[in-house]
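The records we work with from here on pair a chain with its fold. Taken together, the tokens spell out the fold as the letters spell out the chain. To see the layout at work, look at the sequence and tokens printed below.
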Amino acid sequence: MTVDQHHAHASSFGSVAAEYDRARPSYPGELFDAIEELTGRPVSGADVLDVGAGTGIATRLLHARGARVIAVEPTPGMAAQLHRVSPELPLVKGDGNELPCHDASADLITYFQAFHWTDPERSLPEALRVLRPGGALALVWNLKDRSVPWLGEQLARLTAALPNFHYYGEMNALTGTLDAYPFEPVTTRELRWERRISVEDVITDLRSKSYFAVLDAAVKEPVLAAERAALLAAFPDGEVVEEYRTELTLAFKRA
């Protein structure tokens, strides 16, 4: 993906913020248990920045766990949806490449499904600047388990139908850049979970993906219609079970 294409994809989410909030997956409670286990401290009472917060899916979960969380989101449409749904949550405009925060002001910085939109050469030094000594950077991705037959078949259909399709199959490959910065230790954890949703919610989820959001309706609607038809042929009752791998990487700022 070129720099211009990356920017177009990154800025496309505002137009699909409602779909994003309605159909994107949440995160299992075990993920936050793992963060607490690996950091050795509760999320409750921690000063947390949720960067690339989107519509606040993870921000709300952190808030419910008792974190003093601030959502950081650069896209106006996504931020507006977050504020509309959760007006009680603190929200600031910004992104990981230039955090609008004081030095040593956070115990935990989280990126839920968002770190790949940053420039690690900028976002990692920014995380180190804002984290307190001993604080942690958490990189999280929800990945559909494409080894499941129907999800693998969907991947093949989308790859064939969309020239701009991209699938982040192993997001933690991005975390190799952590080695160049004073994070220690770096730990990982993988969790598996599933959700039961309607075929129509699957289509809404697809609409919220950047590779659909950047397309004209004349291009994307036939693809979505074909995908709906394929899913209904496979699941006549209109419901599917989506299996996920949630990948967590925690990197600690040296004390």
